[in-house]
Every structure is written in C-alpha cells, then in structure tokens.
Amino acid sequence: MTYQTHIAQLTNLIADQNGTWDAISPESVARMRLQNRFTTGLDIARYTAAIMRKDMAAYDADPANYTQSLGCWHGFIAQQKMISIKKHFGTTDRRYLYLSGWMVAAMRSEFGPLPDQSMHEKTSVPALIEELYTFLRQADARELGMMFRDVDAARAAGNAIEEQRLLNAIENHQTHVVPIIADIDAGFGNAEATYLLARKMIEAGACALQIENQVSDEKQCGHQDGKVTVPHEDFLAKVRACRYAFLELGVEDGIIVTRTDSLGAGLTKQIAVSKEAGDLGDQYNSYLDCEEIDSATAQNGDVILNRDGKLLRPRRLPSNLFQFRAGTGEDRCVMDCIASLQSGADLLWIETEKPHIEQIAGMVDRIREVVPNAKLVYNNSPSFNWTLNFRQQVFDAWSAAGEDVSTYDRARLMSVDYDGTKLADEADERIRTFQADSAKRAGIFHHLITLPTYHTAALSTDNLAKQYFGDAGMLGYVKGVQRKEIREGIACVKHQNMSGSDLGDDHKEYFAGEAALKAGGAHNTMNQFAA
Q1: Which residues contact 106 (CB under 8 A, 6 or more apart)?
Q2: DSSP secondary structure string for all residues of 225-266
Q3: What is the C-alpha separation between 499 and 275, in angstroms, rounded?
Q4: Is the pLDDT of residue 522 over 70?
Q5: What 3-state class would DSSP assign to 181?
Q6: I want to staple 154 with a disulfide (CB 3.0 to 4.6 A). Which of 99, 163, 268, 436 is the partner?
Q7: Residue 1 — very low, low, confident or very high, per pLDDT cuts 50/70/90?
Q8: Class of residue 328 by CB neighbours under 10 A (exposed 0-12, middle 13-18, buried 19+)
Q9: Rounded CA gap, 30 and 42, in Å?
Q10: How confident is the model at residue 225 (pLDDT cuts 50, 70, 90)?
C-alpha cells in the first residue's frame, strides 16, 4: 500500500474502536509500517530472489549489466556500505552483499579466530544473515524517519510544494535491503545437515546460497593448499538439499551458486561409484592418477579399477587420499560446472589461483558449448596480489609482442620502483576495467570481493593507532577521521542518529505526546554537526 492508503485504512480501523483508540495517530502508524517494510526473513528472501532473477535476465541481454558485492562481517559494515552506495550513486541497483564463510570463521566464531575450514558454529552463519538485514532495515527506518521529519517541517512552514515533493520521494523510496549471496561452505556435514542449515539461512533472509564441492570435514580455504573434492553425486545431493529447502519455504526463485575448487584441488577422498562407462562417476575416476597392475602385482588393501580391459591401481597417499593426474584441473572444472548446471544450479563459481580473464574465459567457452547461458560468480580475491599479477600480465604481453622490456625485472614488478611507469599504468588500467572486461568476455555475472572490509578495518585502525598514540595525539583522530566524516558527508558522524536515537524520539512522541522525554533537544551535542 501507498503512504496515503495506509493512512486511510488505519483511520477507518481506529474509528471502528468506539473511541478507545483515538489517541493512536493513523499517520504515525503508517510511518512505522513503511519503516518496517519486511516483517520476516522469508519476505526478504522472496523479494531479493526476484531482484537477482531480474538482474540475471538483464545480464543475459547485455553483459554490461553485471552485478557487484563486497563481503561484510558485521551488520554495521553492511549498513554503511549500502548508505554509501545510495549517497554516491542514488540507487542500490545491481549491488549486493556477500557473506563470507572465511570472515565468519575468522571474526564471528565463539572459538575466536579460526581458519577457513568449517570449524565455526554453523548457527553463526544464519545469525549473521539476520544481523545484516536487521541493520539494513534500520537504515530504511532512519532514512524514512528523516524524510517524515522534513514533511512535518514543510507543513509547519506552509510549504505545500516541498511537502508534496517529499511525499513523492517517500512513495518511491528504495530500500537498503539487497540480495545476499551467502556462503554455506561445503554444507557442514551430509545432505541432511546441509538442508537444515540452508533452511535456517533462507529463513534469515538469504536468497542465494553458495556451496562448494570439497569434503566437509577436510574443507580448506579456496586459496590454500590441501583441498579435497568429492564425487559429483555426493555434491549434487547437497545441491538438491538446498533446492528442497528453498521450495519448502516458498522461495521458488531461490538461487544456488555451485563452486568448484577442482582447479586447485588435486585430491579426492573417495572413488566415485560408476554404473556404466561414461557416466559421471566414470568420468570423475578417469582423472585419477593410476598405475597399471596385474593380479601378480596387486597388494593387500588395493583399490582396483577396470578400464578398457586393464587393471589400474589409483595412487593412494599416506593420508589415505587419492590424487588426480597433474594438469587435469581445468577439465575437471568444466565437468563440474556442466554437471551442476544440468542438476539444478543457477550460477557457477570457479575458484582460480589468479585473476586472468582468458584463463576463466577458456573454461566458460567450453561450458557454454553445452549450457549456452552459463554465468559465473567470481571472487575478486584479496588472496591475489593484484598489482604483481597484472604487471606480470602486461610484461608477458609486451614480451610476446616483441616490445623492449629490458628495463623491467619481472620478479620484482611489485616494487615501488615501478610505480608511475608505463607498464604499471597499463596494469592499473587493466585492473580498473577487469570487472567490465571479464563480464563481457568470461561470462561473469557477479563480481565480489570476499574479504575487503576485513582488510579496510585493519588498515584504518592501523592508521588511527599510528597517529593517535604518536605525536599527533587527538589531531590524529580529528584530522584522519572526524574532519573527513564531516566534509565527506559520512552518515555515522552523527553516531547518535545512526544508532537510532532520533527514531526512538519519534516513537516516544507517538506513545506519550507532549510528555515524551526526548534525547534530541537543544543540548544534544550532535547538533554541532548540523552544518
């Protein structure tokens, strides 16, 4: 309903109460309703799933319509990000949130900082989703509350034109609530465990779940060594578990992102079950590193494969894991992606060891030969040394083109000595356009940075500590933080307003009228920031 429709409906409702509700203001209730547009996490999941589906269709029509997100480890970080996006760009269109399992493990576990190995409490993931949306909904309430105050001021001044402008803005208000792509790791157990966690995450508001094909109890960060994948049927059972959770809860547009770590994972814990030659299990096993044996050389405890009339023994490591043949990672990635899309996945995630467009595009081209509209979510990871990677890419391209690169040392290109050079400038330009270029060439629908706010929090805290505890003293805070907040219009410079103080004052006035004891009076020091 519109603002005015809410007021009209509430006016009639209050009038029907025989005078007992006459102290209730219809317009105040209408304002509270608009400030709390989403009453449950499922409302959010259904709303944001529709946004993602619309954005996916727009990308299919034109890859310039790619989407982006930043990983957030706290509701306040997500809130400030979306407030900033609305301030600078006027819209939240095609901007999402990413919930990183790495950051949950490192920053939100009751055990304290943990590595990205699925050791954190699974309940911490849906709890963070709920927290993120609590802060985004509060951002809506705060922004609309300020608009309602401006309406009242325009009315008091008799400015009907300004009042109408504000009412139109209220009717067209865009929420800070945007889609979250939420990391469910490798499912935290068997398919039933995956289903139970998926359901909790969806109930908290997640419209998109990202799940990876590693062994749950051997899961590693995508950019570390020792990754172990599982046969396709094990993984696809968990994909189906996520879909069942979406459908059970009525989020029929829910999105599943399947991630393959096969490019960097050279190990498997299991030999896949194969029922006939050429099936998924047989294809998975075909990449195992094997040696040919006969009955005379077979040993006690050997696992034996029969292929083309030959007996093959997969090489087993002391860890009891089996290894794949070197150089098969890309082929296994392509196989993983096609199998996932043909089994209900909506988007793909290929974890790579470097941000190289042609490497990604080479795999996507092969996938699209089978599934033409295949699309990727891609991790613009802080685990990549972007400066060194792209300077080396430019160095290699120049070398291949016959240009003179004798003044550059390829191994030292990270050095500040090369800042400002032609090579460094071209590398920076490639970094700047990486998302747009790879969206067009490599089928990347969504670009995210997994851990950016982890790093920005560390960097800003280091800068403040260096100044404040050094010679600058209080000037370190004033010059490095507060003065910038004021001049750049950072919302939380008025931290009392940001924490909900003005919202509370509005409610006090609704509830108690002139008797309300409000915090936002003349002696509130936040008034110093009015200018």
Answers
A1: 113, 114, 115, 116, 454
A2: S--EE--HHHHHHHHHHHHHHHHHTT-TT-EEEEEE-TTT--
A3: 60
A4: no
A5: strand
A6: 163
A7: confident
A8: middle
A9: 22
A10: low
**Separation CA 28–CA 501 (nearest Å):** 17
Instruction: Determine the distance from the C-alpha atom of residue 213 to the mean position of all C-alpha atoms in its chain, rounded to a whole number.
Output: 18
In this predicted structure, what is the pLDDT of residue 221? 55
Torsion angles phi and psi, residue 174, rounded to 5: -100, 125
The Cα-based distances of 391 to 353, 388, 444, 526 in angstroms read 16, 5, 22, 47
Cα–Cα distance measured from residue 83 to residue 472, given in angstroms and rounded to the nearest whole number: 31
Phi-psi group of 250: left, alpha or beta (phi > 0 → left; psi -120 to 50 → alpha; rest → beta): left
Tell me, rounded to whole angstroms, the distance of Cα 76 from its chain centroid.
Answer: 15
Mean pLDDT of all residues belonging to the chain = 94
Backbone phi, psi, residue 214, to 5°: -90, 165
DSSP state of 112: -
Amino acid sitting at position 493: V
Decide: 449 and 382 in contact? Cβ < 8 Å: yes
DSSP string, 75-106: HHHHHHHHHHHHHHHS--TTEEEEE-HHHHHH
Return d(Cα 254, Cα 256) in angstroms, integer: 7
Q: What is the DSSP letter of 415?
A: S
**What token pair was written down for 41?**
């996490």
Per-residue pLDDT reduced to its tens digit, 94-105: 999 999 999 999
What residues contact 314, with CB distance under 8 A and at least 6 apart? 271, 285, 288, 289, 290, 303, 305, 322
Catalytic residue positions?
221
